[in-house]
Amino acid sequence: MNKFILNCFVGCSLISTSLFAGTYSNSENMSSDREYLGLAGFSASSASNYGYLGLITTLDDNKLSQDGIKLRLWAYRSEYDYDNTNLGNIEVDGFGTSASLGYRFTYEDIVSTFYAGVAAQDIASNPSDNSNETDEDTFGGVFSYELQKAELFAGIGLSTIANYETFGESYWVRVRPSYDLLGLTVGPEYISTAGEEWDQQRFGAYVSGFDVKGLTVGINAGLEKDNAERFYSGISLSKNF
Asked: Which among 49, 67, 101, 216 would be 20 to 30 A from 36, CA to CA?
C-alpha cells in the first residue's frame, strides 16, 4: 500500500505553543489578571490540510511570561488522502481534541516547558479502509517538551519541540534556528514526523511577528517529503488577552 498520513495530531498540537512561544515567553504584561494566549492556524499541501484552535493559560499566580504551571487546550480538524492498491484513492477526515498540563522553568537564557495530557481523535475514511489502523475513535496520552534558547551565537537563537502520542506510537519534532530582522523573527525550519504507518520530513523557512490589527501572524513554507515530494505552506495567528 502506498500511503500518506497527515502529520500526527498531537505533534501538530505543539505547533501552537512553539509558533508563538516567543509571544508569551517575552511578554511584558505583568498585570494581576490571569493571562490567556489564543491560537489559530492552517497548514496545507497538495495531499492534506490541517486547521487548529488552541488556548494556553496559567493555573497559578504567575504570568505566561513567567515560570510555572500552564494549561493547554486544543482542537483540530484535518483532511488527507492516500492510495490503496485495492480501493484506489482514499479520502480521510479527522477531528481531535486534547488537554495538557505543563510546567515551564528557566535556566540562564534557556526556557523549557514540559507537557503531559490526554487526547482523543476520530478518524473516518471514504471508502472505508479496514487496513488503516487510524480509521477509528482513539484515546491516549500526549507528552511534549519545548526548548527555547535566546542566543546560540551571533544573534542566532533556537526553538526545538518534541512530541509523542501513545496511540499510533507517533512522534513529531521541529527545529527552528531564529534571527531577529527588522522586528520580525526569521529562519529555516526542519520538521520530522513518523508513526506506525508513515514517515515524513519537511524542509522550509518561516517568518513570524507580523502585527495585524492586534494579532501576531506567522507564515511558513517549504518542501514536504515522504513517498513523494510536494510544496507545503501555513499561516498561524495568536493573541494575548
From this structure: 49
